[in-house]
Amino acid sequence: MSFTCTECGYSTVKWLGRCPECQAWGTLEEKGAGKSSVKTKVKKSSGAKSINQIDSTLAQAKTTYVSEFDRVLGGGIVPGAVVLLSGEPGVGKSTLLLDVASRVAKFGAKVLYVTGEESAGQVRLRAERINALEDTLLLAAETDLGAVLGMIEAEEPEMLIVDSIQTLASSEIDGVPGGVTQVREVAAALIREAKARSLPTVLVGHITKDGTIAGPRLLEHLVDVVCNFEGERHSRLRLLRAVKNRFGPTDDVGCFDMEENGIKSLEDPSGLFLSRSGSNPPGTCLTVTQEGKRPLLVEVQSLITESAGGQSRRSVSGVDSSRVAMMLAVLSQKIGNISLAKSDVFTATVGGAKLAEPASDLAICLSLASAAIGKPMAAKFVAIGEISLSGEIRNVPNLGQRLNEASRLGITHAIVAHGALRNVSTPQGMRVKECEHVSEAVEILLGSNQ
Fold first, then answer.
1. What is the mean pLDDT of residues 305-315?
2. What pLDDT shows up at residue 215?
3. Rounded distance, CA 375 to CA 388, Å?
4. Which of 18, 293, 382, 419 has its CA 20 to 30 A from that of 435?
5. Domain range spanning residue 392?
6. Which residue from 283, 231, 188 is spatially nearest to 87, judged by alpha carbons?
7. Residue 350 assigned as binding residue
8. Same structural domain for residues 114 and 20?
9. C-alpha–C-alpha distance, residues 149 and 9, integer Å
10. Is 121 assigned a ligand-binding role in the annotation?
11. Within this chain, do residues 16 and 117 fall inside the same structural domain, yes or no?
């Protein structure tokens, strides 16, 4: 008698609540004692061909008519490819896929949309709201794997969407829907069907409390593409990232705008992260962050007030609290006339953007300095650079791409690290100032509003 982990295959002679190898809980299942006497029979087959005889045109990506979705997939969805889409509840996974299904169906393709979480009437209401009603879009509310496979055989769709894989179950396999055994069997059956019929398939996957996809880790290895759909509930912006992609890059990001009447692709999402007012108050500074390969212009805002209590407050939104604390320490130590120890500090981004990379350090620092001094930054001004504990401004990757994006959006002035322009061409019409230390950047803030 032995116990084997369904996640990583670790085997032990006694049951354990947690696998010592992969640290997963409740994944050890009992296996029968003794070795199996079943041997795989040798079959005669002539399926092997010269690689030069394989028709590569059968594996070319086809557009889904949703530009940002195609962008993340690598130009479109490949026939026979299986895409696993995960995301938090309520982020808009079903809305996105219903929009994709309707657009594909609009151009004559037959699409089968299987929902196991909602009734057909509920999906119909959403389709009416986002204008996704098409005659060739087939809808089925089904949770039995055998019934779904029968629909595929009867209807012969050109695209399959399953929402979600955790709701499907096979009557031939023990276990509850969503369990490790059921998810593994359902995924394997749908993948076999997709490969045999060259049927592009999208599977929706639930996520656990720690943000990972529910079910066995094997699920992510079986599929061709794994995408995460992200977004704050109180923000319109949604980001689609490819964690794994056998047909394209994994460093690109698709941007979507969630509206009342549906979801639409955002070719130019930078406008969501800029304030609409024409004024330029103290405490605001622009920077260019990168989401994958895509540069985004983001506005950082800071507010500094006198602390009413004995202990000062530090509140952040959209930025890393530890980096803001570090910028406050650098300003207090390296800039003589700025002291923020007894002040309440509030720092946030516009539009729900998240600044996680160090390239935003300089913009955060200048935003704080501008709020502390009470002097606004120059109009159409951007700051790009990482700041060390000594106050030195360091260069960041892809500076040329960031400056070009800022210039395209009308930015005319920029501050970067010393020597950063050595191998970078400055965009036409943009004045770029190189600074070695944060004190030099603050002097530019104090000296003029150029």
1. 83
2. 66
3. 24
4. 293
5. 272-447
6. 231
7. no
8. no
9. 29
10. no
11. no
- Secondary structure (H, E, C), 88-101: CCCCCHHHHHHHHH
Residues 291 and 437 in one domain: yes
Q: Give a yes or no: residue 288 inside a domain.
A: yes
Strands 111-115 and 159-163: parallel
Asked whether residue 181 falls in the same domain as residue 209, the answer is: yes
Alpha carbon separation from 321 to 299, 315, 317, 347, 438 (Å, rounded)? 17, 8, 8, 9, 19
> Does one domain contain both 378 and 289?
yes
Do 344 and 306 share a domain, yes or no?
yes
Query: CATH no. for residue 77?
Result: 3.40.50.300
Q: Which of 126-130, 274-278, 321-325 has the lowest mean pLDDT?
A: 274-278
Mean pLDDT of the chain: 86
248 labelled as ligand-binding?
Answer: no
Q: Is 86:183 a contact under the CB 8 Å cutoff? A: no
119 and 222 belong to one structural domain: yes
User: At 227, which amino acid appears?
Assistant: C
> Residue 87, annotated ligand binder?
yes
For β-strands 237-245 and 225-230, DSSP reports them as antiparallel
When pLDDT is cut at 50, 70 and 90, the band that residue 19 belongs to is confident
pLDDT over threshold 60, residue 362: yes
3-class SS at 141? strand
Which among 312, 271, 282 is positioned nearest to 376, based on CA atoms?
A: 282
> Residues 272-298, buried b or exposed e (16+ Cβ, 10 A)?
bbbeeeeebebbbbbbbbbbbebbbbb
Asked if residue 90 belongs to a known ligand binding site, the reply is yes
Give the model confidence (pLDDT) of 89-143 as tens digits: 888 899 999 999 999 999 989 999 999 989 999 999 999 999 999 999 999 999 9
Predicted TM-score (pTM) of the model is: 0.76
Asked whether residue 434 is marked as a ligand-binding residue, the answer is no
Task: Give Dmax over CA atoms of the chain in angstroms.
Answer: 84
Number of domains in the chain: 3
Do the annotations mark residue 93 as ligand-binding? yes
Residue 447 marked ligand-binding: no
In a domain, 52, yes or no: no
